Automatic annotation (TrEMBL):
Record key words, sorted: 2Fe-2S, Heme, Iron, Iron-sulfur, Metal-binding, Nitrate assimilation, Oxidoreductase
Organism of origin: Filimonas lacunae
Any one Pfam family match given in the protein's UniProt record, by short name: Rieske_2
Keyword hit for Iron: yes
Top-rank taxon, per record: Bacteria
Gene3D superfamilies: Rieske [2Fe-2S] iron-sulphur domain (2.102.10.10)
PROSITE patterns: NIRD, RIESKE
Protein name as catalogued: Assimilatory nitrite reductase (NAD(P)H) small subunit
MF GO annotations: 2 iron, 2 sulfur cluster binding; metal ion binding; nitrite reductase [NAD(P)H] activity
Domain Rieske, chain residue ranges per copy: 11-114
PANTHER family listed in its UniProt record: NITRITE REDUCTASE (NADH) LARGE SUBUNIT (PTHR43809)
GO biological process, one term: nitrate assimilation
Length: 127
């Protein structure tokens, strides 16, 4: 795993761009954490969120359908179709009690990096 730190974020190399399907997602592991990584080709944007759906604790978000709602990128869990904003993780289907953790994504050449806040990276390193 390739890692570098900037400011309060540790960036780890998640994968090569070509490993993520157009308008689809993959699951990437960071320690014990599963992260859903999406290439929203139609918007030419990348997003990452926790892979665990908070509704029924299913590791499923990376297999969700992505789309837009009022211009905001979103993902729908494949199980019960709850949808979540890929900008801030809030549930868009009327459930204020659950949301997704969102991670920053950056590209360097053909490589995709996901950012982990340093307090979380330290916790993972100590686990
Ligand atoms: S488990 Fe994801 S919406 Fe129910």
């Amino acid at each position: 795993m390739s890692v570098n730190s900037t400011q309060n974020i540790t960036w780890f190399k998640a994968c090569e761009k070509e490993e993520v399907p157009d308008n689809g997602g993959v699951c990437v592991k960071y320690g014990e954490e599963q992260i859903a990584l999406f290439h929203f080709t139609r918007r030419n944007e990348w997003f990452a969120s926790q892979n665990l759906c908070p509704h029924r604790q299913q590791m499923a978000i990376s297999r969700g359908m992505i789309g837009s709602q009022g211009g905001e990128p979103k993902v729908a869990c494949p199980f019960h179709k709850k949808t979540f904003s890929l900008i801030d993780g809030r549930c868009l289907t009327g459930d204020d009690t659950c949301g997704l953790k969102i991670y920053p994504v950056k590209l360097e050449g053909s490589q995709v990096y996901i950012g982990i806040h340093n307090d979380e990276a330290l916790v993972e390193a100590l686990a």
